[in-house]
Amino acid sequence: MGSLNPSAAAASSAINELDELRISILLDPTEEAIHAFRVGFKKLRALYRMEGMVQHQQQFKMHRNLKILYSAAGAVRDAQLLLAFIKPELGNTKLPSLLEEQLETHQDALLIRLQETGAVRADDAPIASKLANWKQSSHNKYEAFFNNKLREYIHLSEHTLYDDALHELRKLLKDILYNHQWLLKTKRAVGKIAALPIKEIDELQKLLGDYQDMVVRASVIRQLALMPALREDAEVLEAWLTGAFRKQQKMRMDLELPIRSLQHLFHLHTS
Predict the structure, then answer these.
(1) Which of 217, 225, 234 is nearest to 81 (CA)?
(2) Which of 25, 52, 225, 255 is the most exposed place for a label (fewest CB within 10 A)?
């Protein structure tokens, strides 16, 4: 492990932490463990993307089994969050019981995936070999990587921002935040990277996350409201969707200023 460069060593530790979380979920699939696994995966994925682009101008690929577990855990986590939101809002309808059935199905699928995939450790020969080949890159290359991310944000934010584009903006900002954290952890967040407007980036990605949550909830409830099993609750669900539209409309308007403000900060940073 001592021969690995800082990013490879960080990736190695993160892979082993994910495997420990895999075991934890297999023994007791708590919401906290599933959430921690998903966040850990996304952080590791960001590091793989950055190192691949910095070293070879092509993103490194993560182990297939980790992707499978991430997807299965995501289905469970999304169902848990939706159910937690629905119960106080629409607890008087048949929707919670329907979602509980879906959650059980996703949980069963996750346990099957956990048993099928097995351990993914950093000392597994294929993974260890790839990490050993990660090269030490110059600080200029990391600065160029972040500048490209900022320019990508600027370019995307200059066009009409439909919901899918707003989601892409958030993913960009999360990538910047996660990789900034990796460089902080490995004591390489210096120069222009240290001057990134991290506070403003984090504030906007949280607002975008809240908006995306509302978009997803409304979309799912709209689809479920058409199901015959929920016919008796049609009026209640229709009223909720009308209210959700108004909330979403206000949230979208409130996003405009921080999106433009961050665009301006990124222009200054890359000039």
Answers:
(1) 217
(2) 52
Q: Which two tokens stand for residue 251?
A: 């949230």
Are 255 and 211 within 8 A, CB to CB? yes
Q: How many CB atoms lie within 10 A of CB 77?
A: 19
**Sign of the dihedral through C-alpha 181, 185, 188, 191:** positive
What are the structure tokens assigned to 118, written together? 């097995």
Q: How many other C-beta atoms lie within 10 A of the C-beta of residue 180?
A: 20
Return the exposure string of 235-271: e unless at least 16 CB atoms fall within 10 Å of the residue's CB, then b.
eebeebeeebeeebeebeeebeeebeebbeebeebee
Distance, in Å, from the CA atom of 233 to the CA atom of 223, rounded to the nearest integer, reads 13
The answer to whether the beta carbons of residues 266 and 146 sit under 8 Å apart is: no
Tokens representing residue 17 in the block: 């932490």
**Is the backbone of residue 118 left (phi > 0), alpha (psi -120 to 50) or beta?**
left
Measure the CA–CA gap between 106 and 85, rounded to whole angstroms.
18
What pLDDT, on a 0 to 100 scale, did the predictor assign at position 1?
A: 46
pLDDT tens-place string over residues 61-110: 999 999 999 999 999 999 999 999 999 999 999 999 999 999 999 999 99
pTM of the model: 0.93
Residue ranges of alpha helices (H) inside the chain are 6-27, 31-56, 64-90, 95-117, 125-132, 139-157, 163-185, 198-224, 234-270
Under DSSP, is residue 91 helix (H, G, I), strand (E, B) or coil?
coil
The torsion angle over the Cα atoms of residues 160, 165, 168 and 174, rounded to 10 degrees, is 70
H-helix or E-strand spanning residue 193: none
| pLDDT at residue number 3 | 78
80 burial (CB, 10 Å; 0-12 / 13-18 / 19+) is middle
